[in-house]
């Protein structure tokens, strides 16, 4: 697929950094998980158009699924972009890939049951990873409040 002219055109349009007015793209392997034997890998692709301030909306302009490899997914991304549009590929930490997968689940009438199962597992895994990061990084405990509470209640109980 490296000889595919669409892929070479996309490579010429890739930006190393995001910039106002350019597109933000996502290409991420959705399933099967590494080492799985149940069918070819499938990739999610999506694109967001940044406004003049460089901000991107929560929902992408498009979301799709592609297979069997990353090169084909990149070519699929190109199909959905306006001719000549520049694009910066985002990492999954910067966009909500689970939301992209949910969009595909909601609107793609051609998905087979095994596609749906793979996408649901992808969404579930990302959401669980989000929950774990939230639990590890955030708390409702504030030191000043905890000291005041301990003073008022005569101890430092965890209830």
Short key terms for the protein model shown above:
159 residues, alpha+beta, 4-stranded mixed β-sheet, 4 strands, 42% helix, extended
Question: What report would you give on this structure?
Answer:
The protein starts with a helix and ends in a 6-residue tail after the last helix. The radius of gyration is 21 Å and the shape is extended. Strands 3-2-1-4 form a 4-stranded mixed beta sheet, sandwiched between helices. The chain has 159 residues and is an alpha+beta fold. It contains 5 helices and 4 strands; from the N terminus they run H-E-E-E-H-E-H-H-H. The model has no long low-confidence stretch (mean pLDDT 87).
Topology (SSEs and partners):
Blueprint lengths: L4 H9 L9 E9 L10 E8 L12 E5 L3 H11 L6 E3 L7 H11 L5 H25 L5 H11 L6
Parallel strand pairs: 1-4
Antiparallel strand pairs: 1-2, 2-3
């Amino acid at each position: 697929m490296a000889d595919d002219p669409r892929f070479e055109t996309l490579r010429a349009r890739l930006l190393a950094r995001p910039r106002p007015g350019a597109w933000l793209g996502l290409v991420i392997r959705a399933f099967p998980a590494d080492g799985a034997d149940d069918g070819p890998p499938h990739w999610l692709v999506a694109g967001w158009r940044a406004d003049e301030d460089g901000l991107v909306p929560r929902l992408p302009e498009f979301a799709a699924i592609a297979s069997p490899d990353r090169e084909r997914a990149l070519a699929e991304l190109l199909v959905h972009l306006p001719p000549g549009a520049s694009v910066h590929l985002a990492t999954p930490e910067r966009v909500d890939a689970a939301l992209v997968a949910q969009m595909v689940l909601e609107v793609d009438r051609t998905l087979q049951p095994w596609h749906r199962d793979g996408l649901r597992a992808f969404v579930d895994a990302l959401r669980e990873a989000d929950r774990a990061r939230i639990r590890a990084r955030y708390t409702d405990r504030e030191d000043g409040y905890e000291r005041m509470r301990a003073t008022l209640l005569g101890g430092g109980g965890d209830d």
